[in-house]
Amino acid sequence: MTSSPTLLAEEGIDLDEAIATNRPTRRSLGRRLHLDTAAVVGWTIVIGVLAMALLAPLIAPFPPNDTDLRARLLPPGVLGGSASHVLGTDSLGRDVLSRVIWGSQLTLLVGVTAVLVGGLIGVTTGVVAGYAGGWWDLVVGRIADVQQAIPFVILALAVVAVVGASLLNLILVLGVGSWIFTYRIARAESLRVREQPYVEAARTLGAGTGRILRAHVLPNIAPPVIVVATLFVPQVIIYTAGLSFLGLGVPPPAAEWGRDIAQASEYLRTAPWPTLVPSAFLVVTVLGINLIGDWLRDVLDPVERSR
Fold first, then answer.
1. How far apart are CA 74 and CA 52, in angstroms?
2. What predicted TM-score, i.e. pTM, was given to this entire model?
3. What are the structural domain ranges in the chain?
């Protein structure tokens, strides 16, 4: 049975507190993480890659762009190569391990930043469209429909080819190109939340639109938006690697996994390690983030939390 806004006001119920009781606590998150082996693996992978990116200047055995043609395509140390190059060298004599470590910085930077840019645009437009409706909802909805009709990869390829390859352009292209994913979720959740009794009660008590959005709409649409954004980070990382593989990503000589895979692919038969090592790190990183996204989807779902 749903309480009316008048009864909620008469009973002195704090709307913010009532809504907060349906949100997962840190204790419940920790308990569900402890019981989910896949999530533990995912967090371990992501924390490891993040630590590798942050500590790159300290743990990389060589500068990423140092070349030594006399030591080109050396096999990993365990396969009879130089002991100083644990994972071997590439076609320019650069240390593969150092390239992978430094490449994790660009991989995470582009993936996370692009999703944040797209999420900011998508949440802003989605909340306004869902809560206010009207002409804004109509216009933004048509723009989203047109953009969604164009394959994301094709759109990114076309734009990057026109504006040029750079780190900033890559982030902006991937961010602007991905806003519709969070827009759809934010709009749908805003439409649902604005009809809830506590929002009607807030209006009855004289709360303005700004306060309702900050205190009630945004906190309640945050869980599904976070899940969608987390699950989209691996896709952006793969898109980044794909664009770099095609020569439209971060310009050389910056260490980036996709570009390193592309440069080493012609030596795959004779010297596979410069290709396989960054490929393995790319796959494991994507897997780790996906496992975290699946875990967040479970813990932020009220139905799953009630079990």
1. 23
2. 0.80
3. 26-305
Mean of pLDDT over the chain: 81
Residues 6+ apart with CB under 8 A from 91: 72, 73, 263, 264, 267, 271, 274
- Length of the chain in terms of residues written: 307
pLDDT at 134: 80
pLDDT score of 140 more than 60: yes
User: Do residues 288 and 40 make contact, with C-beta atoms less than 8 angstroms apart?
Assistant: no
AA letter at 90: D
**Signed CA dihedral, 102, 103, 106, 108: sign only:** negative
- CATH class of this structure's domain 26-305: mainly alpha
